[in-house]
Amino acid sequence: VQLQASGGGLVQAGGSLRLSCAASERTFGPYSMAWFRQAPGKEREFVSWIAWSSGTTYYADSVKGRFDINIDNAKNTVYLQMNSLKPEDTAVYYCAARTQSGIYYRADTYAYWGQGTLVTVSS
Q1: Three-class SS of residue 11?
Q2: CB 106 within 8 A of CB 92
Q3: pLDDT in tens, 41-100
Q4: Hey, which of 24, 86, 92, 100 would disulfide with 2, CB 3.0 to 4.6 Å?
């Protein structure tokens, strides 16, 4: 499975961005997809997760109520709609996919990763 992430950019605090992650195939997966982010000097952290078949979602507390993850099955694409952005949301955002179950917020359970897209939120 190859993942192509896009949609990052520069936005003012309070603004919105939508990230996209296109998966190359669905025949043998992925079972679920997630977004992680990594700010300069910090560890990669979980942002959001979605199960491809059921649409079940989870969010980190820091983004709950502001971010929304959803799927377009026809396009094999997962989106992360980010609203009410804050400077602390500034990071490189990575999409990830896996074909097996596991602890959704652990980065080491994902076998496939996109290249990352930079989101910068100015104050």
Answers
A1: strand
A2: no
A3: 999 999 999 998 889 999 999 999 999 999 998 888 999 999 999 999 999 999 999 988
A4: 24
